[in-house]
Amino acid sequence: MKVLLTSTSFQDCDGLHKELLNQQKWEVSYLRGPLKKSEIIGEVANYDALICGDDVLDRDVLEKGARGSLKFISKYGVGLDKIDLVAAKELGIPVTNCPGVNQIAVAEHVIAMIFSFFKNIHLSHEITSLGGWKRPLGNELFGRKIGIIGLGAIGKELAKRTPFLGIETFVYDVNLDYDFLDGRELKVLTSVEEIFKTCDIVTLHVPLLESTQGIVSKEILFDCKPGLVLVNTSRAGLVYEPDILEALRLNRLGGYLTDVLANEPMGSNCVLKNQPGVLITPHVGSRTRETIERQGTMAVQNLIHLIKAR
Ligand code: NAD
Description:
310 residues; 13 helices; binds nicotinamide-adenine-dinucleotide
C-alpha cells in the first residue's frame, strides 16, 4: 500500500499518530502541502491512498489518480471544500474526514484573537520587541455582543465559553440544535443581516459550500453595526477580501481577524497584508499538539477502516 501524506502538522509533530502510522505496513511518502493542482497532479496516480490536508483535489486530479492506483482519500481535517466530492464518488474513491477533534482548539483560537485585538497584545509586543514603551489604549470585552454564525462543532464550543466572559452571545444557524440552546444564555437571531446589524463582533463558523460562498456580502458589510470586528477562522471564500479592505478603510469594519486567506500561504500581493485593523494568523486555528495527535490518529484510523471495508 503506497500512501502519500501531505499534512505538515502531522509530519512536524511527534505523538501517537506517528506511532500508529509507523505500525502499518504501508510505504509512506511525504510532501509538504497544501499542494497546488500543478504540484499534486503529477504525483497522485502513483499512490493507493492519500492522507491529505488542504491540497487541491479537483476532478482532473482525481481522474488522473483513478487512472493510476488511487483508491482512498483520508482528509486530515474537517473542511472538504478542496476535494471534488461528486467526482470522487463517481470514480469510486471514498473520502473520509475528521469531525469532532479540533473544535476546542479553534474556539480557543477565536477567543485568543479577539482578546489580542481588543487589548492590542500584538501591537504592544511589536513595540517592546523594538525596545519601545509606547502604551496603546485597549478596549474591554465585557458587555460586548458577539454573533456566532454557524452553531456546529466549533460554534458550540465558542458559545459555551463567551457568556462566561461577560460577552452577550447571539447565534444564527440554518439548522439550529435546540437541545444545545436549552438552558444556555444564548440569543437566537434569524439572519446573517440581523447578526451584522446587532453585534460588535461576528465570528464565522459555517463550512465553505456553494450556499455559503460570499455569505458576507458587500451589502451586509456596509450595513453592519459601525466598527464591527469580523473574525474568520472558517474559510476565506465566505468573504471577498477586497470588500473587507474597503469596509476597513471606510471605518465600517473596526477589524478583520483571520486565520484563513484566499491564497495560502500568503503571497506578497495579499490585499490584507500589513493593513491597519487586520490581524492574520497562518491557518493555525486547529494546530495544537492535542489536536494534531487526535486528528492524525483519526486520519490513520479512517484509512485503516477504508482499506478493511474494501
Ligand atoms: P460543523 O459542520 O460542525 O458546523 C457547521 C455549522 O454551519 C452547522 O451547524 C451548519 O448547520 C451551519 N451552516 C451551514 N450552512 C449555513 C448557512 N448558510 N447559514 C448558517 N449556518 C450554516 O463544522 P465545524 O467543525 O464547526 O467547522 C466549521 C468550519 O471551520 C469548517 O467547515 C472548516 O472550514 C473550518 N475549520 C477551520 C479550522 C482552522 O484551523 N482554521 C479548523 C477546523 C475547521
